[in-house]
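User: Can you predict the 3D structure for this chain?
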Amino acid sequence: MAIKSVAEWFPKKERRFSTGIFNSGTNVGAIIAPVAVYWLQRNYGWRSAFICTGVIGFIWLFFWLIFYTLPSKQKKISQSELNYINSDVEESLQDDQSKTPWLKLFSLRQTWIFITGKLFTDPVWYFFLFWLPSYFKDKFHVNISDNYGLPIIIVYSATTFGSIGGGYLSSWFIKKGWPVYKARKTTMLIFAICVIPIIIKTVKSSFKL
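Assistant: Here is the predicted structure, written as C-alpha cells:
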C-alpha cells in the first residue's frame, strides 16, 4: 500500500525520497519496539505486548480507511498541486497500454535483477529484524533487556538514516540533471561500498577465532 500511495501522490522524480521516508518507518518501529515491548512485558505481562501492538495496528488501519483518498478526490489540494502530481501520468499511461502476463515477467531482465537483489539483501535485513538480540547475547554477551535495547536502537537509527539518506541522495542526483537509472544505481553503489568495512571486520574477527 505504501508503494502504491507514493505512486499516486508523487511524480516519478520525487518517489525515491518519499519511499525512503516511509521505509524508514519500519526502522523507527524497530527502535521503539525493544523499549515499549520490554516495558509492557515487565509491567503488565507478555500478553500485553501482543495485545497492545495489535490494537495499535487496527487503530492505524481505521484512520487510514477514513482519511486516505486519491489526489483527484482530495478537496484540500489546489489545481496546481494536482497538475504537479500528475505531471508524468501521460507517460505512464503510454507505458501501460497493454497488460503483461505474469509468466512473461520471468522473461524480463528487470525481474531477475529484482529477484537477485532481494535474494542477497532480505536474509541480511531479516537477520537484523529477528536475530540481532540473540546475536548480541551469544557473540558479545550483551543482554538487550539489561539496557532497554540500546544496541538495537543504535543499529536501527543508522538504518533509518540510510533509508532517508539514500532516497534523498538519488533525488539530489536527479535534480542535478542525472538520468534516473544512473542516479539510483550510483546511490546503491555508494551505500553498498559503505557495507565493506563491516565485512572486513567480520572476516578479521573470524580469523582471530
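The mean pLDDT is 77. The chain has one domain: 2-208.
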